[in-house]
Write a structure and sequence with these properties.
Largest sheet: none
Number of helices: 13
Strand content: under 5%
Helix content: 55-70%
Radius of gyration: 23 Å
Number of domains: 1
Structural class: mainly alpha
Order of helices and strands: HHHHHHHHHHHHH
Shape: globular
Length: about 280
């Protein structure tokens, strides 16, 4: 009686090689690892307010405190545009949008260094690391928008049909923040002094964004220079979709959208090209 012959087992070998030249990340691979993305975001949320007195209340307290300071010291100094909402509502709506942008850029820029122990040892799409803060900051933004609605009701402002455009401006703001944050996260790996320049850069962007005053009160050429900042029309759009006013987003968006999308493509390409050497540099 013949005995069956055992066939040799075939083993699949996967070679991971660095690609040369400029290339774009495989977003399908990021989508396949979306569970890891959610786990990173869940961890960041649980760690952020651990052992804090107010906990998630800091999301509410910080913009309210800053709004109170601005209303106290600048409310009687800053000239209001015709048809502008009361100063506290005007400032708070801008602060909520700005805090979302600021937090997403700052956390995304520092994310690779914060997760360097995992980046050096485990293979996974590195792009997930700077993308994860987008989910955590969206939670903070949702809480801030709830406070905005309460403050609007106090001053007699209520959502209208234009509020349906709010998600469009939030997506634009998130893409603008990610384009800057992803680029800085890769740059921060190679040049560690970038982390000291980021707060200065964000302060400069804060004063060049329409937070404390309306761009319509500026005269030429300052108004032209002011609107060159692509963040300004997006924050104006967030505010306009909530409370209306004289600052209606219009022609500025014709250059803001391609600038943001172009910056995002370049940022993703730079990150994917440089991430192959992260383990060596870290």
């Amino acid at each position: 009686m013949s005995r069956p012959v055992a066939l040799p087992r075939t083993r699949t070998v996967t070679n991971i090689r660095a690609r040369e030249g400029w290339h774009f990340p495989d977003l399908r691979e990021v989508a396949r690892h979306r569970e890891l993305l959610f786990n990173f975001a869940r961890r960041d949320l649980s760690v952020r307010y651990r052992q804090t007195w107010l906990g998630v209340g800091w999301v509410v307290f910080q913009p309210l405190a800053l709004m109170g300071i601005m209303a106290l010291f600048f409310g009687q100094v800053v000239r209001q545009a015709p048809g502008q909402a009361p100063f506290p509502v005007f400032v708070f709506t801008g602060l909520v949008a700005w805090n979302f942008f600021n937090a997403l850029v700052s956390e995304s820029a520092a994310s690779v260094i914060a997760y360097q122990a995992i980046v050096m040892k485990v293979f996974f799409p590195r792009l997930i690391v700077p993308l994860a803060p987008a989910l955590t900051t969206l939670v903070d933004l949702a809480i801030g928008l709830c406070i905005v609605l309460v403050l609007m009701a106090v001053y007699g402002y209520y959502p209208t049909l234009r509020t349906l455009l709010l998600p469009v401006f939030i997506v634009l703001l998130a893409l603008a923040a990610l384009s800057l944050g992803v680029f800085l996260s890769a740059l921060n790996v190679r040049y560690r002094d970038i982390r000291y320049a980021i707060p200065v850069m964000m302060q400069a962007l804060f004063f060049s964004a329409p937070i404390m005053f309306s761009p319509s009160i500026l005269s030429s050429p300052f108004s032209t220079v002011y609107r060159v900042n692509p963040i300004a029309p997006i924050i104006e759009g967030v505010r306009w979709s909530l409370i209306g006013g004289p600052d209606v987003p219009g022609l500025e968006l014709l250059y803001v959208v391609p600038v943001v999308l172009g910056a995002l493509v370049l940022s993703l390409g730079y990150f994917e090209t440089t991430q192959q050497s992260f383990a060596d540099v870290l």
